[in-house]
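Record type: ASSEMBLY
Status: queued
Input:
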Amino acid sequence: MTRFVSPLVLALIGILLFGDGAYIHAKAWLAQVLLQRAFDRSVATGEVVKPWSWADTWPVARIEVKRIGASAIVLEGTSGQALAFGPGHILQTADAGERGVAVYAGHRDTHFRFLRNVAIGDIIEITRRDGRQFRYRADASAIVRFDESGIDPTAQDFQLVLTTCWPFEAVTPGPERYVLHGVLIGVDKDE
Amino acid sequence: MDNYDAVDSNEHPWLGRLIVVGLFLLAQGIAVMLVAFVALLVSFEPGWSATTEQASLLQPRDARSGTLLLKEDGATIEAIRLGIDIDVTVSGPTLRARVTQVFRNPTKDWVEATYVYPLPTGGAVDTLKMVVGDRVIVGDIKERQQARVIYEEARRAGQKAALTEQERPNIFTNSVANIGPGETVLVQIEYQEPVQQSANEYSLRLPLVVGPRYNPAPIVQSVDFRNDGSGWGATTSDPVPDRNRISPPVLDPARNAPVNPTSITVRLKAGFALGEVKSPHHNVKIESPDSTTRIVTLSDGIVPADRDFELTWKPAAEKAPSVGLFREHVGDADYLLAFVTPPTTEQATQKPLPREVVFVIDNSGSMGGTSIVQAKASLTYALARLQPTDHFNVIRFDDTMDVLFPTSVPADGTHVREATSFVDALQARGGTEMVPAMRAALTDKLGDTSMVRQVVFLTDGAIGNEQQLFETITAMRGRSRVFMVGIGSAPNTYLMTRAAELGRGAFTHIGSVEQVEERMRGLFAKLENPAVTGLSVRFSEAKADVTPAIIPDVYRDEPLVLAAKLDKLAGSIEIKGRVGDRPWSVTLPLQSAAEGKGPSKLWAKRKIGDAEVARTIRELTPEQADKAILALALDHQIVTRLTSLVAVDKTPSRPEGEPLRLSELPINLPAGWDFEKVFGERPQVPDQLRERHADARNQPTARRPTPASPDAIRLPKTATSAELKMIAGLVLIVLALVLFVFNRRQTLLTDAA
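Status: finished
Output:
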């Protein structure tokens, strides 16, 4: 029977590894469900609602691209833990709908996977926690290094940046980021 | 082998052969997979650690690291190249310079290039031209935000555009959008500047590189209380709000060949017979077409932009003319530029007043290399020049500070010796927290009004929070006078001149060890001799708007430089003041003014400087000052803090859909600076990373020790290891299955045998 031990150990490690990877996806998916609820309550009550009691972050906005049916709830901050649950709003940047650049970052393999399908000209809708909705039009995309984003935080017009790791197909982390740029075109049109 | 023999004896011999082949293939497959998997781990593991380590290296300390944007495919990575040509024409008291920057794009991408470069503090930038092929597009002056918008629109529309913005009165940025693959775009700016004069010597400076600035951390908030004394105020959190705009990537000279080749031509028409003409920091070739004209070119042809170019000239006659008067008619107004050198009283007739001198020496990291040697030599010289009746103290600072004596002490042998050995032991390291040192120097502990109080500040001025320093000087100067000594190959001249102006002192510059004695002697002549004080100007007939509004005291051998806007060119100008305790006056008839080039621009530039000073000393509210500056700048087409020049080529050139890459052009470290002293240890680039980027030598490895900035947007890591883990997991499971099948087959075969 000893000859079955090594395949069993290998299989066990394989299952553990696979499970670990799958867990990341499951967590990302489950968190979005919980976040969706918390966000809806947040919009209804106008208060900060934590998705689960021990969470150290909270939903701040919903990003939707109707054309491709994509949607994600954005969290405050971009710590590693927060990004596992949803895209994050980079702290020093403006809120959606405010003067300046609102920057949201998400994982390329989970929440922001849809960015690859967003075409220039698509409408990106952002619903804030206070229920206000802003419509942006994607107008440019670029590939930059993470430390050379070229994003001007002092910009005076209303801009949006969605960013994720580049290239989408890669399996290892790298220094390059995909940056999708948008400009504000309308407020509260849908409601 | 027994097993297989057994199989062979089976009734299905072909099955056995098939199994053998299959097993062989499987075993090979497993081996390949194992090797592949190990290779995967080996090749990626350092890759991960390299990336993460790089991230942690950069993380909080770093506003914007110095890395050029590079193409992904390793073979053809090349950066934008820049060449600079400077052509200066000196006409008497003013000079006009044309700076041509050649941006060449050897890459296969469309690129946007930005280059941060210095210009003289007194220079009025009034022209921007962009040359694309055979088209010349002339830039317009616009409000800064508006110009930005025009540029951004052109950038997105794929049109070529150039934008000139002022970051500091002596730091500018040129951005050029949509440089096509293999294309070259020329950007040309022009500025007007007065010629500097001190004693018998005239000079011009062309700063060629921005020394990396120390930007203090925004950890401690400073508080702005309202002027009305209501006790309410606002906290301003960052002393250098625009830190990332003035911090271009810097190349480590030990690892990179110098970049940004520069050629310089100076056409010198002094207006008088010329004596000695020399360039202290560069080898030059000087031609003399006639006695009043010289043409100066670099004898090496081109030099890297890593130190300031300086040119000095003296008249052939014993003494330089003591008066100069130049006029220009623009629009419906006349502009006047006047140079008057007041007479010097002989030292013998004047008994110098006892002085209290506080020496402040900057021993921060940016002073490392030859700068600290110059600073120490200058200070040692100064200490030796002190009289026994004088009092003195020495302060040294980097990001810490030491005051040698609790209060100023008499300059007797013991104290001077103690100070000299203190100075000798100084080493350059650390940051540059200049404000506390200035505050300590301006604190008048002795309070002895029978002594003249002077602060001599030796620094390269490599800081980004100039405004804080100016505010400190304004608030605390009391009866002290501040004398700035600029050290090194590329000092921050804006900081020096403005600090000396606010501190009612003078500024001198020491560019090499050989200049120490000559320049310090000049400075001491100023320190020891009474200045011309109480200066006033009166026009007999014309209504005049004179700048500087508050005429500063003039030190020995310095000319008084006045610019004025007149409604008519009639009557005379009378300048009055006191030399020592004797009254002095001079009257110049306006009719004798010579036609000159540029007095109007220089007047406007000085007025703008006045408004900035008034803003610093709270004479004008920021809004009032900004309004005045904006009006002057738009009127006279000058680039300022609030106005930029922008040129757009209407023909779109970048096809839609082609991405545009941003390339921040790196600059050299100023000559004589020590890279490790400024940026700390050279970062250890992991070997793996270098292999992945074949061009590691092209990659500037500068790591700025600037603290975290709220300005810099760094994109977080947005990839999980999920996929990798799942792939690895699957590979292992398949492997396990294969092993399992293999083992089982063997067992079965054994059983069958």
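Annotation: The first strand of chain B starts at residue 81 and ends at 91.
Annotation: Residues 1-10, 36-78, 681-711 of chain B have pLDDT under 50 and may be disordered.
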